[in-house]
Amino acid sequence: IWRQAHFDHLTDLPNRLELKIRLNKQFSNSNNESFVVMLLDIDHFKDINDTLGHHYGDNLLKVVSQRIVNSAKNAEFVARIGGDEFVIVFNHIKSTRHINQIASNILQSLSSAIHVENEEVFISASMGIACAPEDGENTEQLLKAADQAMYKAKNNGRNGFEFFSRDMREQAQARMLLLKDLRCAIEYKQFELFYQPIVSLNGLHIHKAEGLIRWQHPQKGLISPIAFIPLAEETRQINAIGQFVFSQAIETLTDIKKFTDDDFQISVNVSPVQLSTANSGIDDWYAMLDAAKISPSSIVAEITEGLMVNPEELTQKRLKQIVKSGMQLALDDFGTGYSSLAYLQEMDTDYLKIDKRFVDNIKADSQELSLCEAIIVMAHQLGLKVIAEGIETPLQYQLLTEAGCDYGQGYLFSKPLNKSDFMDLIAEKKVILSK
Ligand code: C2E
Ligand code: CA
Ligand code: CA
Q1: Average pLDDT score, the chain
Q2: Ligand 1 nearest-atom number relative to CA 225
Q3: Which residue minimizes the CA distance to atom 8 of ligand 1?
């Protein structure tokens, strides 16, 4: 019973509990000797499990654990602390160079083909390294440090290792604080929806606007969505934010309809989390529109391509619902991801938004211009309208217009505006809005 509680039955290695007991012991040995933990996580292990099955995954893990044990000969011990996570502990390590070498050896040992059940697979792993006592005063801190370093290694493109650094701790702390503040931001009404006009390139009429969220932080000032949307997605607070955005969009549409009967559209950015979470609120949108007497066609949902690659059933169902209701779909940031024609067609997309990164480098006779021209022709063939994002110069505007692009959005026309400035802008151009 003791063995079962302290050792992993699959690999026979110490488990998380046993690892903690041993590390606690190391820390309490008061002679303050330094030691090193390496946290190793296999890259894309979930894909292997999903495609080849759990049984296969289990057998693969056995081979991996063998290879780690064999290549980390002078390790104190190797532990398996979760699905595809291993921790390797070393005492008496002399230098950083030495650690580097060991870490490279371990990763190297995993890189040759692995044969399990007549299948050959190639894997890689990412590793985070933390040294005691500098990087953590106790077991928990030290493992957390190794974990943070491991995530850095993943972000750097996987198949590598990273050392924990003070910076990482500071970043992690800043993140924690931001998360805490984010939790009450809705309640304290710190969010505001800004609007950036989308204009038709021939005629410069304002036809649409994209809703862009802003967070007015009481101490830190205006925080960019780029800084907090990923956090909000991780904690699913994006669902509440998404509902806020949607209700603001309806309110603004209602105000706009008061002085024009034009079919003005507001587009909202929809996070994949909103589509995949069961009770995200997205299913209430139809009733919300109905109650406000706003036609679904006044809303454009901006989604990214990532969504269309292996979408979960619920996501798929909701995308279809959106299309069926009469809301329109725009594919955001086109050109930065998979950019697959098949997805475009499959999803009944109405608009394709060319990413700012392409627009940035458009010059006469440039490759970027050729790319944009090709995208525009292709989109038109598929029955989609094209919106170019991030137009900042008259030249970009001119070249895109000549290329046949339908709509533009960017600082050249207008920055994102708060509601009152935005309403002033479209009221001024009332003539443009009415038919
Ligand atoms: P996005 O959907 O690609 O939005 C366009 C971004 O480009 C906006 O940044 C906009 O202010 C900026 N932009 C537009 N024209 C120009 C230009 O001419 N020059 C430059 N330099 N920038 C331009 P913003 O507002 O910071 O939003 C960043 C991203 O945050 C958005 O990228 C979107 O992915 C996300 N986001 C914003 N609001 C929401 C929201 O309500 N929900 C969700 N899920 N995501 C949002
Ligand atoms: Ca967008
Ligand atoms: Ca975009």
Answers
A1: 92
A2: 30
A3: 212
